[in-house]
Every structure is written in C-alpha cells, then in structure tokens.
C-alpha cells in the first residue's frame, strides 16, 4: 500500500509529502491526474475505475473505498 | 481468394508544430505536463488551403509511380476520413478525378477515425475475396487540426494531420486476414464535433464548433477494451499475443499505449510508438507506423502482424494478418 501512496503523491505533484487516507485532493485531481490514477489503480489492484467516479472522490480514503467496492 | 498490401505511402503537410507553439494559449507547465503524458513532441498541421484529400492524393500519386502496374486500373477507391473536402460529393470522387481512375472504378467513403484504417482494410479484403474486385486503393487520413481550438488543453496538442495511400491486391498465397470489428455507441458524446452538419448546422462561436473530447472516458474505454481485444485477436488466429512480430496500435497517447502493452503482456519491442513525431493522426496512425517504424521489416519476408484501431464512436477494429514483400513503404511531404 505504501507504494500506492508514494506513486499517488507523485501523480498529485506533492513535494516532500506522502498522501495518507485522510488526504483531501482539493484541486489536485485534474484531468491528467485522473488518467494517471486510473492507470496506477489498474496496475496495482487490477481494478478499472471510472473517470467520473474518481473525480467525485474527495479524499484518498474515498478512492480506496471505491477500489474495494469494485474489487 | 485472399488479399495483400503491396505498397503504402504516407504524406505529411510541411508545417511542423512544436510544443512551444501552444504556450501562447496554454500555460507552459500544463503544456509540459500534457506533452509528458501524451508523448507528443512534434506534429504536422495542414495550411488553410491544404486538405486531407490533397495529402492522400499526393500519397497515391507517389504510390502509383512506385508499385508494379501502377494504380490506374484500380477497381475501387475507399476514402476513410472525417475531414472531407465537401459535404458532398465524397472525397473518393475527388481522388477518382485527380488520379484519373477509370469509370468502372467504385468510389466509397467511410466516415471513421482511429479505427478507420483497419475498417478500410476489412472492406478492401471483403471486396477482393468476394471475387468482383482485384485491386483496391485505400486512402485514409484526416486534418483534425482544422477542427481544434488551440485553447482546449484536452485536444489542442495531441492531434496531427496526415494522409495515406495503401494498395491492396488479390493474392492466392497470403494467409487470409482475421478481423474483429465492434462498436460501442454509448461513446457518441465523448468524442464529438457538435456543430456544422445538419443536427445543428449553425456555428455558435463557442466550444461546440470544435472537437470535444472527454479524455477520461475515452481513456477508460480504451483500457477496458483494448487489452482484451489483443487477446481475442490472437485467439481468433490460434496465436499467443507474443507470436505477433509486431502489434501496431493506434497512436492515441504514449502513456496509455505503454500501459496497454504491459497489461496485454507484450514485449515493448513488439509495440512501436511514434506519437512523439506525428501526434495522433486519426486513421493515418497505423499506415504511418507501417511506413516509418517497421518500413524495412514489411519489405522483407511475410511476418504476422496485429493492427489495432480504436476511438471515435466508440469503435474498435483489429486485424491479424501477414505483411511482407511490400514494394514501397515511404513517408513524403506535400
């Protein structure tokens, strides 16, 4: 899971910060981050997220819950 | 009766557009991020007076000079484009006139994008295997740049223009190609130009006049469909995906193509990528790959290829076929 958090932090272009489940995306989840996250989740969990569902996620925990609901 | 590709020429307009061109309308960090993700470094855009038909006809003229027997006795010309010269007649007639093709030649137009080249190959093969046609000229290309808003970050930097000509003839020795073609029309609104035809003919001077792309849903469709399509195609032809000498994929987005290749368990060497040089040229990406990245290989002995087109519609079209002994495979400029 730590690898997922690290790669997600890179996608969100966070400097010196690793996301936690509580991390709120704010305006960080732009269209490029959405497609990168879809690929990351597909690679690590073999789950294909829907772009619109991902955009609706407010926190990292929401994404984890979404993955769980589809896994 | 089977069919074979005997020659392919791709034609690009001379106007080369590099990424810094877009910084006039999109902030430079976003330009950098999009370039990194999509993988496009340069693309060629037609001038105001150059059309898709000009590019394809120029390619066809060069092709006619280079293949044995020329193209003047073609009995069908298929023109695949979404950017025709006129609402009517179809661009196949424009090509028919300019190329001086005979009156018993059938002219067909197909409105298709990224799946279009394989759709055209499929139609050409079926015409030939039906027995009434022996020599089919397939023209495929687009000048999507004319439909773009340079302010739209989801489309402006990705697309390039190109026109291609492929000659397909009857062959008794080539193995029959195997096709998989499908459509998912739930994607109609995800990749679309709203205005300018007959549903809403009047331009409204806003985003509806330009190409619209819902990048995330197109991306989703592709990841959902294409790895499975590669597996299904291999299975249809009693192969493993790694049996193909090359798996040529429509050049939509470098990041996505690399992920699909990995997901389908292909070797990176099987999957050439040239989007960095030309951008996404719609139905022209597959012939452009054939004329650049594997041009020497297709002039050698027959090898098994998979060609996969996917996009607008949504749609997909894939073929498992032998390609080899091609007499000419070149990229020229208009």
Automatic annotation (TrEMBL), chain A:
Domain Carrier: 6-67
InterPro entries given in the database record: ACP-like_sf, PP-bd_ACP
Pfam families for the chain: PP-binding
Protein name, entry field: Acyl carrier protein
Source organism: Amylibacter marinus
TrEMBL record, chain B:
One Pfam family matching this protein: ACP_syn_III
This protein's record includes keyword Transferase: yes
CDD domains named in the record: KAS_III
Domain Beta-ketoacyl-[acyl-carrier-protein] synthase III N-terminal: 108-175
KW Acyltransferase (keyword) present: yes
InterPro entries reported for this sequence: ACP_syn_III_C, ACP_syn_III_N, Thiolase-like
Keyword terms of this UniProt record: Acyltransferase, Transferase
Domain Beta-ketoacyl-[acyl-carrier-protein] synthase III C-terminal: 240-322
Protein name: 3-oxoacyl-ACP synthase
Species of provenance: Amylibacter marinus
